[in-house]
Specification:
Chain lengths: 309, 282, 279
């Protein structure tokens, strides 16, 4: 009897360890978790192994996922995303990843094979001419102001003087005596480089200009500030901003096509060589009428119509 | 068993050194990318240069340093009085009913992502500044105001902690000598909690200098030397943030170099804060 | 000083301080009202479950939710073992010595590094050097580095809060140090560690600068850990700046705020229940 009750007592204590007297507020109820040593060691080892495995993936790990990457100009990006969306709905098994980064970065990505297709909103530079480029659409750069701004029309030289800081007040352009607020793109942007090439020439854009890192952001700023002036892709102009006429020429598809509106730049898809595989398939879709219609609807100039140059 | 214990101890030591190792990795890579450019154009030309025009190879970050400085000062000008006031309020005067609202409000201020602050600033503050004070609205003033609110929780929580940690004999002694409540606070408690308050301010400064997303949205990012609080400006952080996606070659290295300068400034501020907080504890 | 002047000063000070406290609350409410006010009406089940269409003008934000969850999960997965291990080491295996000072210094410094620097680091280390590309993995690992200090300090507090008697009992029963840790200390510190994890999650969700440079901004549903992804905060940032759709922006913002509100409430409730009252 004595032995059994002793045993019972011992068993009782083994299975119900005494909780220390300090458990006034409870210890969260996790007190009798009995985590086995083995599981912890195993878990820890697994974590370490996982980490080492991840690091050794550096050897020859080239984006081990299906699909293609399209990277580059942020001007082209929204349209490429639209096209990719449409393409993927027709080819459900494909994956197209669209990324920004700028025209220059996109071209470099193609060169280093980090991306299969590069997007550029400017023509290729001489040292990039060994890459394979296809124009997928044409886009105009429009100068925009706030809808309430009385100015409607500016000549190229006036725009140049405004953006270089020589003309500082709207009064000099026939408006109210308010300072002109310039809105610019950041360095490295294809849109900015096109603007520089077509409008500014050798002159520098004033360092006092505000800088925003996308067409949409410039549009936002201009639509909120009655004294702002900026430049964006024609395809992004909406009712929140007003597009200026260039020496009397309106930036619309007709005038771009017949060449009278001159601030036009190509949207390019850049490849490292002859396009092949999924990239080729996507390119063919982009150049096809349904895709081009999509782009026209969004305000770009399709390449299927004559360029008039 | 002994060997197992030893192995575990050494593994844990290795794990514990992970934070130092990560810090080391960060330092190494940032410097490795950025230093070559600083040497290339000369530290003086880089730090004191006034023109940042990457397309022409000009990489001077003085305007950014000055802007970071002014934005931070502005933020502190708002954050220190407001923060100290709230800390004093919570410590001394707050009726429990208000405290129940204020404390969670401060925790919330701390938790809200910076992009939300930036957005709100863009929608509400920037038009106000533009319409009533002039300029583009996207300015150092707007940035400072928003930043001031973002660093409030830091200043309040640490200052409150240090005020609470003071022995009650300080206040009671002051009151016993005939001081008013306010005099006790202003002349006795705050000076006594000095090092904690200074720590909170330095940490707030660190947070202000390091803020990126909200500043990109509100500051306007003009690349020139600011001449007034209504001017648009670009801080060290927004310089990196706004051009990083596009940069390559020298330009990218220059952005890393900006990161190097930023990193050094932050490390200095951090070390100061650690120094002051150790003094408080010690 | 005249008695009246002193009381006048106190009166003025009192008024100013009340104004300060109230304006802090007021600004908080203003921000919440603005975003939630415009954004809550947008939130319905379809918003959360659909993918964005038309460059984000229509549809929902489903891929971004997946992105946020995935990035946070990876971050927590890597940061927790490291953080808890560090905390265990600091509290159980060493006294205040050179090593522990170095470790604490490292942790404090890491906590102060700005997110854009983490972004630069993540970009050059994970995306380029380790060739992981813009991916969930790159973003997650960078986030892990960012939340590590939070987990370390919370875990340390949790372990510190456990009375020494637990260890005494364990040692007296013949337990080794490690056995003490995993059987007596960790189980009881788990709620506190969990709180640290939740705080880390809260931080990861709002993180934008570092993720934009490491995880990319692709709106397509990810297929593997190496796919690029856009998080909710990045999506909100892009929508807000580009003005593509104010409705979507407000909706995403509202979702973000609600998520963060929820997480922080849970975290602070846990904090107060399991850690504070024991110290």
């Amino acid at each position: 009897m004595f032995k059994i009750s002793n045993l019972k007592l011992i068993l009782h204590h083994v299975f119900n360890p005494p909780s220390p007297p300090f458990t006034k507020g409870g210890v969260g109820g996790f007190g009798h978790w009995n985590l086995r040593f083995g599981i912890w060691k195993l878990g820890f080892l697994i974590c370490l192994l996982f980490i080492f495995w991840v690091f050794q993936l550096n050897v020859g790990c080239q984006r081990s996922r299906a699909g293609i990457t399209v990277a580059g100009s942020t001007s082209v990006e929204p349209f490429a995303e639209l096209l990719a969306e449409e393409y993927m709905s027709r080819h459900p098994e494909s994956h197209i990843y669209v990324q920004g980064g700028g025209s220059t970065a996109g071209i470099e990505a193609v060169r280093t094979h980090a991306a299969q297709i590069g997007m550029s909103s400017r023509s290729l530079l001489p040292d990039e001419k060994n890459l394979y480029a296809v124009t997928i659409a044409r886009d105009a750069i429009t100068i925009i102001v706030h809808p309430k701004n009385p100015t409607n029309n500016l000549s190229l030289s006036q725009i140049k003087q405004v953006f270089s800081g020589k003309i500082k007040s709207w009064k000099e352009l026939g408006g109210a005596a308010h300072p002109i607020i310039l809105v610019n793109r950041e360095e490295g942007s294809g849109t900015r480089e096109s603007f520089q090439k077509f409008v500014m020439g050798k002159e520098e854009i004033s360092l006092e200009s505000l800088v925003q890192d996308s067409n949409g952001a410039i549009r936002q700023v201009v639509s909120n500030d009655p004294n702002a002036i900026g430049y964006i892709s024609l395809g992004l102009v909406n009712e929140k901003v007003k597009a200026l006429k260039l020496s009397g020429v309106e930036p619309n598809v007709t005038d771009i096509e017949n060449g009278t509106y001159t601030l036009v730049r190509p949207f390019l898809f850049v490849f490292s060589g002859e396009p092949a595989g999924e990239a080729k398939s996507f390119l063919e879709f982009v150049l096809s009428p349904p895709a081009q219609n999509l782009l026209s609807k969004e305000g770009l100039v399709s390449i299927l119509k004559p360029s008039g140059k | 068993m002994e060997i197992q214990e030893k192995i575990i101890e050494k593994t844990l030591l290795f794990v514990a050194l992970s934070s130092i190792m990560i810090l080391g990795l960060i330092t190494f890579f940032i410097f490795e990318q950025g230093l070559p450019l600083i040497w290339k154009i000369g530290p003086r030309a880089f730090i004191l240069g006034e023109r940042w025009v990457p397309s022409q190879g000009s990489f001077g970050i003085l305007p950014m340093i000055v802007s970071s400085f002014w934005v931070t000062i502005g933020a502190l000008a708002l954050g220190i009085p407001l923060g100290l006031a709230c800390a004093i309020f919570l410590c001394e005067w707050s009726p429990p009913s208000v405290g129940i609202v204020l404390r969670p409000a401060i925790q919330l201020l701390a938790a809200i992502p910076s992009v939300i602050y930036g957005f709100w600033g863009l929608i509400v503050l920037v038009p106000l500044v533009r319409n009533y004070l002039g300029g583009p609205g996207l300015s150092i003033l707007s940035g400072s105001l928003i930043l001031g609110f973002m660093i409030l929780p830091t200043i309040i929580s640490i200052s409150e902690d240090s005020l609470n940690a003071l022995p009650s004999s300080y206040k009671q002694g002051a009151l016993a000598l005939g001081a008013t409540h306010w005099q006790a606070i202003w002349r006795v408690l705050i000076p006594a909690a000095r090092s904690g308050i200074v720590t909170s301010i330095i940490l707030g400064m660190g947070r202000a200098v390091g803020e990126t997303m909200a500043m990109i949205m509100i500051l306007g990012n003009a690349v020139k030397m600011p001449t007034s609080f209504l001017d648009s400006a670009r801080t060290l952080t927004t310089n990196i943030g706004i051009e990083m996606g596009y940069a390559s070659g020298d330009h990218r290295q220059a952005l890393f170099a900006t990161g190097v300068v930023l990193f050094i400034i932050i490390m200095l501020l951090n070390s100061l804060a650690i120094f002051f907080s150790r003094r408080r504890a010690g | 000083m005249l008695l009246r002047t002193r009381y006048l000063t106190q009166g003025i000070a009192k008024v100013l301080i009340w104004i300060a406290a109230l304006s802090t609350i007021a600004v908080m409410i203003l921000i919440l009202l603005q975003i939630l006010g415009e954004g809550l009406p947008i939130l319905h089940l379809r918003f959360f479950l659909e993918s964005p269409r038309e460059m984000g003008r229509e549809g929902g934000i489903f891929p971004t939710i997946i992105g946020t969850v995935a990035l946070t999960a990876v971050g927590i997965l890597f940061a927790t073992p490291l953080g808890v291990g560090t905390a265990i080491f600091l509290r159980e295996y060493t006294r205040e010595s050179q090593i522990s000072r170095i470790i604490r210094f490292g942790t404090d410094c890491l906590a102060g590094v700005p997110s854009i620097i983490f972004g630069l680091f993540g970009f050059v280390f994970f995306v380029i050097y380790l060739n992981m590309g813009w991916s969930i993995l790159s973003g997650g690992l960078t986030l892990a580095a960012m939340i590590l200090p939070t987990i370390i300090s919370t875990a340390e507090e949790a372990i510190k809060a456990i009375p020494y008697s637990y260890r005494e009992v364990s040692y007296s029963l013949g337990g080794t140090k490690w056995q003490t840790v995993i059987r007596a200390i960790l189980p009881n510190a788990l709620p506190g560690i969990f709180t640290g994890i939740i705080l880390g999650v809260g931080r990861s969700i709002g993180e934008t600068a570092a993720t934009i440079l490491t995880a990319g901004s692709s709106l397509v549903m990810p297929t593997s850990l190496f796919s690029p992804i856009r998080t909710m905060s990045i999506h909100f940032y892009i929508l807000a700046r580009e003005g593509i759709s104010m409705d979507m922006a407000y909706g995403t913002g509202a979702a973000l705020i609600l998520l963060v509100l929820l997480i922080n409430t849970v975290a602070h409730w846990l904090l107060n229940r399991y850690i504070r009252h024991r110290v």
